[in-house]
Amino acid sequence: MESWYYAPDTLEWESAELAYSGFLGWLAEGALKLFYRHRRCYSSTACMSL
Q1: Contacts with 4 (C-beta within 8 Å, 6 or more apart), sequence order
Q2: At residue 37, does pLDDT exceed 60?
Q3: CB 47: neighbour CB atoms within 10 A?
Q4: How far apart, in whole angstroms, are the C-alpha atoms of residue 15 and residue 3?
Q5: What is the residue-wise DSSP string for 4-50?
Q6: Which of 12-16, 23-27, 28-32, 37-41 has the lowest mean pLDDT?
Q7: The dihedral sign for the CA sequence 16, 18, 21, 27
Q8: Helices (H) and strands (E) in the chain, counts
Q9: Which domain of life is it from (predicted)?
Q10: Which phi and psi angles does 32 have, rounded to 5°?
Q11: Residue 46 half-sphere exposure, CB side, CA atoms within 13 Å?
Q12: What 3-state class would DSSP assign to 9?
């Protein structure tokens, strides 16, 4: 089973290109903050604290 996410830049559901088990492993590794970093930063100073 494939994982999907709602992309804030396109406002559409997109494939995460990971199987569900791979997605759970990815979450367990703590990569979620890194994944959304460029989506939450609106200026270079805002990203410095991430």
Answers
A1: 13, 14, 15, 16
A2: yes
A3: 12
A4: 6
A5: EEEETTTTEEEEEEEEHHHHHHHHHTT-HHHHHHHHH-SSHHHHTT-
A6: 37-41
A7: negative
A8: 3, 2
A9: Bacteria
A10: -60, -40
A11: 7
A12: coil
Query: Residue 38 contacts by C-beta under 8 Å, 6 or more apart in sequence?
Result: 47
Both tokens of residue 10?
A: 């396109």
State the residue range of the domain holding 6: 2-47
Sequence letter at residue 9: D
Contact call for residues 16 and 23 (beta carbons, < 8 A):
yes
Mean per-residue pLDDT over the chain, rounded: 75
pTM score, whole prediction: 0.46
pLDDT at 12: 92
pLDDT for 50: 47
Rounded Cα distance, 13 and 4, in Å: 6
